[in-house]
Design a protein that fits this description.
Largest sheet: none
Number of helices: 9
Number of strands: 0
Order of helices and strands: HHHHHHHHH
Length: 199
């Protein structure tokens, strides 16, 4: 097998592993926000696992990007990696991957500087992780050569379902914590609607 072939397989594999790891990181992030913990782990263990898997995901993402840049089959430069939509190769799909990377880098850098910038600033930037995950998912769907394969389709749908379910639980928990349910939130919104705007 040629070096290009090995790099192609490495690119596909590290992309899939990155998707799984970042999905688990998002799920653990939601668990931490819900003050939850994994069975057999104290809450600080869940937080530590979240951080450890975050770093592992970044490592696999770096390998994924390196394989794409080094592979001579397509022309992707370091500029293309950092500047969204600058590439001549699949500019939209690659550009979305670049946007996701830039958001993740912002989260990573501010996490490393958390003690210096303060919790409030760190938390504000940390919300970018929510945006980076779906953007990265769309990048993978659009540019991935395995998108049509059954195993990749099930992997993608499983990750999407897991995050949507966890996000739904998070929203429901936040509504309960504020003493409101989705139905009361709807009634509140309707009560604030001007009479003239109602059908």
């Amino acid at each position: 097998m040629s070096d290009s072939g090995l790099l192609w397989y490495a690119n596909r594999a590290t992309g899939a592993v990155s998707l799984v790891l970042f999905t688990v990181v998002v799920l653990l992030g939601i668990a931490v926000r819900l003050r939850g913990r994994l069975r057999g782990l104290p809450r600080f263990g869940t937080v530590r696992l979240h951080r450890t898997l975050s770093l592992s995901a970044v490592v696999f993402l770096a390998l994924h990007i390196t394989a794409a840049v080094v592979d001579s089959y397509v022309s992707i430069s370091l500029l293309d990696v950092l500047v969204p939509f600058a590439s001549t190769y699949q500019p939209l799909w690659l550009g979305l991957g670049t946007v996701a990377l830039d958001l993740m880098l912002a989260v990573l850098i501010t996490s490393l500087l958390r003690a210096r910038i303060g919790h409030r600033a760190w938390r504000a930037v940390h919300w970018l992780a929510w945006a980076s995950w779906p953007i990265a998912l769309i990048h993978g769907i659009g540019i991935g050569t395995d998108t049509g394969a059954g195993w990749m389709l099930w992997l993608t749908l499983s990750c999407l379902a897991a995050v949507l379910t966890a996000f739904g639980i998070r929203v429901a928990h936040a509504a309960r914590a504020s003493g409101r349910t989705p139905s009361t939130l709807l009634r509140t919104a309707e009560s604030r609607t001007p009479e003239g705007a109602r059908p």
